[in-house]
Structure formats: structure tokens, C-alpha cells
Amino acid sequence: MVKAGCKYAVVETSSHALAQYRVSGVSYDIVCITNVTPEHLDYHKSMKAYRQDKMKLFRELFSQKRKPGVEKISIHNADDQENFSEFMKFKADRKIAYGRRVLEDAGISAQVRAEDIQLFPEYTELVLMTPQEKMKVRLNLPGDFNVENLLAATAIGFSQGVSLSVIKEAIKNVHLIPGRMEPIQEGQDFQVFIDFAMTEDGYQKILSTLRKTTKGKLWVVFGCCGDRDRKKRPKIGEICGKMADKVIVCDDEPYSEDPKVIRDMILEGLENTDMELNKDYFEIPDRVEAIEYALKHAKTGDTVVIPGMGDTLGRTFANGIVPWNEREEVRKILQKMHSEQVTR
């Protein structure tokens, strides 16, 4: 990257990388946190340990190697009130916050905010604000969580003196992110999305977003990954049972686990909701059959979301990896449905 003339490197740094010292020797100049929600607990074992590993980025920032004239800047999510003050306690030359919550005096040098947020099925309109500027922008991505991501990116740009007019132009070039709330359209009169969500927080965010833009019923077709945090399975099942109208539990990537054991754990969570088996929620192990059931029963104005796989091109089972393309499977079913309607 240096030889190619790159002046900036944007690095998504995982909690695993921090815990395993895989980025030791990397001197960061800007560190940014989005939020801290339950994830990778099969590895970290507790939220406390997970949070402590994330904090390494901020704890070590100020003492890391410096470039001449380059500040050490930390960027924080003001709306994540549970973790905001914890991450703010570490030293930095400048601390910048972003979010909808207005901060009066929290030890920050500036705040980037969003106002007048309007959510639509396939895009979002909002007003971006820095201490110096205010500008209406259109983001070609749906969802509250994408507003949060935009604010984080804007705060980073702002820290480097990038104007909102430049940011607005850059936003225009951001369109589909493969496998992330990716719409699938084959002429049907209901919405279909595939997504990579696999945590409680991820499910809450996509279902909350789609609930706001769905006129009819909200369907979710999903399973959980094997050889990962087992505790989240009933929790995700309960979230889907409370936030969706129709739920279909199928297989995801079981890895070395028995797929039925995974499904049973998800169903435990659904049993804690007001949903009724075979009326509101269904168990259809085969993923293709499960997707087909939802698509064939969805009505005008409904939304079908299929989380878990995103744009992954393979599913891992005990005996190996099987080729898989979620968007193509969905397209094939929708195209077949369309041709059958035309034939009739």
C-alpha cells in the first residue's frame, strides 16, 4: 500500500485480533468504536472480557508510535450509553463523538450528528451535522444501523478535515453492499432481503428496520451457525418470535454439530413468545424448502428477510463445504413462481 502511494489505511480490527496480539506493532492514529453487543462469546466467554479486549485499541492509542504532526484521535458512539464513558476514559489528543444524543460536556472536542432521519425500503434521507456545517444527504442503503455506520464514517472524515460536501458526493457512490440487507427483486409484489446477521443485535436491527418499512407481514427465515456461541440461539429465536409475524426455522451452517440440536435450541426461544407452532412459526430443516415456503406464502406488501448467510458462497457441514449462493437460490424460486403465474 505504501509503494502504491496510499496515504490512509482503514482497518477493521476484530476482537480476536486484539486478544491474540495479531495487530501488535500496528500504530493506529484514529480509532473508532461503533458499539459493543454480544458476539464471539464462545471465544471471549463473557461480555466483560469481550469489552476489555475491544478497549485495547483505545487503551494503547496514545502511547503508540507517532508520525510527525499526526494526532491520536478516538471516535465514540454517543448513543451507546452503556459503553460510551468506559471507552472515553482513555487518553487521546482529540475525542470526537457521533450519534443522535446531544452531548453537552462529555470531554469531547466535537460531535457529528444526524437529524430528520427518514427511512425508506431501499434508501435513507437525513441531515448530517458537524460543528461547522449542516447538509441534507441521501444514503442509498436502508436502516437505522446504516445511519449509525454513516455517522461513524463521517466522524472519521471530519477528523481529517473532510467537508460535508465531499462526504455527500462520496455517499452517492455507496450503493449495494453484497449480502447486507441486499434486496432481491424478480417482479414480485413483496420485498425480499438477504442479510449476514448472526447475532442478537444484528437480528434486532434488521427486524426493527424492516418493521418500519413493511406494510404487510414480516417473515424471517433463518437458522444458527454450529460450533459457535450456543447461548445466543434461544435468544435469537425469541427476538424473531417477538419482532416478526411469521418465522421459519431451518438449517444454516451446522459445522460439526447435529443440525436438529441447533434448531431445537432456537425453537426453545420461540416457545417463550406468543407465537404458535405451525401457525406463526414453522420448522423446515431444508433451507431451500424453507425459503420456498416463505416466498410462496408471502402476500402483497409483505417482507421476507433471510439472515445468516449473506453473500457466502458455501455452507459448512460435518462432511465438508457444500457450494451455496443464497441470492441465486432465492432468484430461482421467484423466477419459477413468476413463470408458473404467467402459465396460468
What does this structure look like?
The chain has 344 residues and is α/β, with parallel strands linked by helices. Helix content is 35%, strand content 19%. The chain has eleven helices and 14 strands. The chain has helices at 15-19, 41-44, 47-59, 81-88, 144-159, 164-172, 200-213, 232-243, 259-270, 287-297, 326-343, and strands spanning 30-32, 73-77, 94-98, 110-119, 124-129, 134-139, 182-183, 191-194, 218-222, 246-249, 281-283, 303-306, 314-317, 320-323. The chain has a six-stranded mixed beta sheet, with helices on both faces. A six-stranded mixed beta sheet has the order 7-8-12-9-10-11, sandwiched between helices. Strands 13-14 form a two-stranded antiparallel ribbon. Helix 7 (200-213) packs parallel to helix 8, helix 8 crosses helix 9 (259-270) and helix 10 (287-297) packs across helix 11. The radius of gyration is 22 Å and the shape is globular. The termini are far apart. The model has no long low-confidence stretch (mean pLDDT 93).
Estimated helix fraction: 25-40%
Q: How large, in whole angstroms, is the Cα Rg?
A: 22 Å
Strand order of the largest sheet: 1-2-3-4-5-6
Largest sheet: 6 strands, mixed
Q: What multimeric state do the chains show?
A: single chain
Distance between the termini: 58 Å
Give the SSE string: HEHHEHEEEEHHEEHEHEHEHEEEH
**Ranges with pLDDT <50 over ≥5 residues?**
none
Q: Percent of residues in beta strands?
A: 15-25%
What count of helical segments does DSSP give?
11
| E-strand count | 14
